[in-house]
Design goal:
The chain is an alpha/beta fold and 251 residues long. It is built from seven helices and ten strands. It is globular.
Length: 251
């Protein structure tokens, strides 16, 4: 098995993998609501998690999910209108949140078309997390309960691309990432400080095309955020789990 940072869970196919991820997500949500009265969930866009989001809606085992107590945050977003086909929030709403009992006000889209989207989203985080101080770390950073990440073939995660400016930001929770090293259009993304303050992080990878990137991560002796940004996901006081199907794991 690949020796990745944190723990690794491998399932034969995506159906079994999504069940394992859904069970872990639901258990974490129920625990968060019991202990703190609220569940803060950060979701990624893309084609990989979309069928997983749909499974959360249609599978009866997840009917206990506490959507009324859940706040959904967006890990990263392209600077496009919400009705654009490339909009992550559009996909997340259409595949998941529009079909649950979550209040629309608890689904926090990034204001990507504003003049200061990063500052506005940080302020929203402060306002919402300020209502439940137990959800904030000692240094003032919001502690997301569960973050679902993906990984690109170039080992980027969120919109933290190799050699891009955002990978060097350690004093902000949200930034605009742009420039020659960012796949257009420009992005708004969570940064390492916010992501690594989370209680649980899951990296979801499926398909044989992910194996080469996963081998790059496994071969590292220390994090290399410059070339392998996903290696910078190292929760300070949380749990990191890689969710792989057999094809991605090379099994």
């Amino acid at each position: 098995m690949l020796k990745l940072p944190g723990s690794t869970l491998v399932r034969p196919d995506t159906h079994d993998l999504f069940e394992a991820l859904g069970d872990a997500l639901t258990a974490t949500a129920m625990e968060a609501v019991r202990e703190r009265g609220v569940f803060h969930l950060a979701l990624s866009g893309g084609s990989t998690p979309e069928p997983f989001y749909i499974s959360l809606v249609i599978d009866p085992r997840y009917r206990v999910f506490p959507w009324e107590r859940t706040h959904v945050w967006i890990v990263d977003e392209r600077r496009v209108p919400e009705d654009n086909d490339k909009s992550n929030i559009r996909m997340i709403r259409e595949a998941l949140t529009d079909h649950t009992t979550i209040r629309r006000s608890q689904v926090h889209a990034m204001p990507v078309l504003s003049t200061d989207p990063a500052g506005e989203y940080e302020q929203t985080l402060r306002d919402v997390f300020g209502q439940t101080p137990r959800c904030i770390a000692a240094d003032g950073t919001p502690r997301l309960d569960f973050v679902l990440l993906g990984m690109g073939d170039d080992c980027h995660t969120a919109s933290l691309f190799p050699h891009s400016a955002a990978i060097r930001v350690m004093d902000r929770w949200i930034v605009v990432n742009e420039g020659e090293h960012v796949t257009p259009p420009d992005r708004v993304t969570m940064t390492y400080p916010l992501l690594n303050a989370a209680r649980r992080l899951a990296v979801l990878c499926v398909g044989s095309k992910k194996l080469a990137a996963l081998k790059r991560v496994a071969a590292l002796k220390a994090p290399d955020t410059h070339d392998v940004p996903v290696s910078g996901i190292r929760p300070a006081d949380g749990v990191l789990t890689w969710y792989l199907d057999a094809a991605a794991a090379g099994e």
